[in-house]
Amino acid sequence: MEYISTRGSASALDFEGVTLAGLASDGGLYLPAEWPRFSEAQIADMVGLPYAELATRVMWPFVEGSLTEEELRSLCQQAYGRFAHKAVTPLVQLDERQWLLELFHGPTLAFKDVALQLLGLLFETFLSRRQSNLTIIGATSGDTGSAAIDAVAGREGVDIFMLHPKGRVSDVQRRQMTTARAPNVHNIAIEGSFDDAQAMVKRMFGDADMTGRFNIGAVNSINWARLMAQVVYYFASALQLGALHRPVAYSVPTGNFGDVFAGYVAAQMGLPIAQLVVATNVNDILHRALSDGDYSTGTVTPTDTPSMDIQVSSNFERLLFDCGGRDGAAMAEQIRSFEADKAMQLTNSQREGASALFTSVRADQQQVLQALRWAHENAGEVIDPHTAVGLHAALASELDPSIPMVTLATAHPAKFPDVVERATGLRPNLPSRVGDLFAREEAYSELPGKYDAVRDFVTQHASPAA
Ligand SMILES: N[C@@H](CCOP(=O)(O)O)C(=O)O
């Protein structure tokens, strides 16, 4: 499989190349040169497979040429063997129509583990093959940070620098990152928002001095391998719900558009998906873009759903590129003008292409609390506030009620105990697998929200390229 950049001028790479590169050298995001498509018979053959085997079948077309099928199978077995539920991503029924897809049974209690547990192993495999090393630079609004740290802490040949917006993640989220004590882990709290952190990460990939000295790598969903691994749970859930006989719809709480873009990829591969509902909080750039074509940033408003407090959604570029005719030069120009004006209008073809599968709903804080209460009172389920954003959107959907609607339950409720308690009166307990989180000592550095400060910190602490 060959991968091309959304901005058209970076060299095409194979799967190993894109996994280690993270972001393309022209600032774009990598995508497969064409979508692999399964036949109905191939999809029917996947029904009932254990998760690791299903993951091997679904991801094989993307990795072929860089791994053998047996190598991929072994990595999937290792990655998904660490999950606390045998099904890895179990479905829970809420009522006749509404379902939850629980994605939080990994080590750090959020959907990010599904991809990052595998990505850690992919890095190890490719780096030892090349006898090389990697300086990972990542940004998190709460969940990616701990999942990435868990995946690479203590691994040979990898340093990780994780930026989080100071004071804007939950206590559990922060502690999950800052209590991980391994010499290759560097947590940095920056002044500013997640968008500021994400912008610094992307800037470092374009900083010739840094890329000349270090092998810079990515763990955010700008890295194609992240999205690829997230495609699998759409297959797992849709097949369980009989998607070969009736399509399934999904409501996806999202900030960086990666999780829902993985659903789009599943649909391109032949999975019968009726609709993807993009669920946002009041930081609603995606909702405005999909409903009015208006992709303009505003100030980030801190909410009860901090992981989604994002105004610049990296993966939206992948959708615009794919729906807009895959014109790299036009995409590069559109992004240049967005970066200058902090605003852009979607083209007609981008709007039409997106509307074939996507719709969107925005949830304010009251609606989030109501959805939390709805799940508890109607189905006896305690959900996290991000999942509640998705559930609010799922309940608002006007789709044919015979189509099952699956809300992605992206995080464990115990990551956000205060909000859950405010809505339901119940304070969820942390599962024992996170251990004595509140007894452990924290360690992190604080830096101003300035690129130069982050660059100097990385320069001082990272190992030079090998
Ligand atoms: N919501 C994320 C933000 C980063 O998103 P990613 O999917 O690109 O890693 C978080 O919790 O950190």
TrEMBL record:
Names of required cofactors: pyridoxal 5'-phosphate
A Pfam family this chain is assigned to: Thr_synth_N
> GO annotations under biological process?
threonine biosynthetic process
Question: What NCBIfam families does the database record attribute to this sequence?
Answer: thrC
Keywords tagged on the record: Amino-acid biosynthesis, Lyase, Pyridoxal phosphate
What name appears for this protein in its UniProt entry?
Threonine synthase
User: Species name for this entry?
Assistant: Altererythrobacter rubellus
| Membership in a protein family | Belongs to the threonine synthase family.
CDD domains membership: Thr-synth_2 (cd01560)
Task: Tell me the superkingdom of the source.
Answer: Bacteria
Q: Which residues are recorded with the post-translational modification N6-(pyridoxal phosphate)lysine? A: 112
Listed EC numbers: 4.2.3.1
Residue span(s) of domain Threonine synthase N-terminal: 2-80
Q: Which gene encodes it?
A: thrC
What is a GO molecular function of this protein? Answer: pyridoxal phosphate binding
Q: State the reactions this protein catalyses.
A: O-phospho-L-homoserine + H2O = L-threonine + phosphate
| Pathway terms, separated by semicolons | Amino-acid biosynthesis
